[in-house]
Amino acid sequence: MKKSVEKARHPFLSWLQILIITGMVIALALAVEPHSQSQAGAPRAAQEKNLAALVEAEEVRGQQLRITLTYVSSDDYVADYARNEGGMILPGEKRVVPMPHPLPLAPTPMPTPIPALSVPTSPWQAWWMLFFDAPPPGR
User: Fold this and answer.
1) Dihedrals phi, psi of 62, to nearest 5 degrees
2) Taking a C-beta distance cutoff of 8 angstroms, is the pair 120, 129 a contact?
3) Cβ(124)–Cβ(136) under 8 Å?
4) End-to-end C-alpha distance for the chain, whole angstroms
5) What three-state secondary structure class fits 31?
6) SS3 of 94, please?
7) Are the C-beta atoms of residues 125 and 136 closer than 8 Å to each other?
8) How many CA atoms lie within 13 A of 85 on its CB side?
9) Per residue in 52-104, pLDDT tens?
10) Are 135 and 118 in contact (CB under 8 A)?
11) 139 in helix, strand or coil?
12) pLDDT at 139
């Protein structure tokens, strides 16, 4: 009976061991957390670079569009469009429309006559000519 009483007195882990294990778990969690946060920032840096490149490309495109808008708003564009696309001319000018010369028609070539093939007299001779493309052998 004394042995069962002694086992009840001694717990599996002492309070000191529980405190040490808890402290180690907390220290490990704190050590791993900053590393995971630094790893989480890597994709953000790549996304930031991609977005910066996209913003720069759109700024260049916007500048090109502003230049195009300036040209389209000018009188030079209107005159150029009227002459090239609209078919308009200035007073005193004459429109010249080039006309292609008609080409002389070549005479239609006559097809060469095909010699008449001898008509087979029996069905087997017709089949022979279809399969072998040659007249049947003589009997």
Assistant:
1) -65, -40
2) yes
3) yes
4) 126
5) helix
6) coil
7) yes
8) 6
9) 999 999 999 999 999 999 999 999 999 899 888 888 888 888 888 888 888 88
10) yes
11) coil
12) 54
Backbone φ, ψ for residue 14 (5° rounding): -85, 170
What tens digit of pLDDT does each residue of 38-53 get? 666 677 888 899 999 9
Q: What percent of the chain stands above pLDDT 90?
A: 25
Which residues lie closer than 8 Å to 126 by C-beta, 6 or more apart? 120
Helix (H, G, I), strand (E, B) or coil at 10: coil
Is the distance from CB of 121 to CB of 115 less than 8 angstroms? no
Decide: helix, strand or coil at residue 135.
coil
Structure tokens at 37: 């946060």
Token pair recorded at residue 82: 């009227």
The model's pTM is 0.37
Write the CA distances from 61 to 50, 56, 58, integer angstroms.
17, 9, 5
Report the alpha-carbon distance of residue 13 to residue 48 in Å, rounded: 51
Residue 14 tokens, joined: 């002492």
Is the separation of the CB atoms in 134 and 126 below 8 Å? no
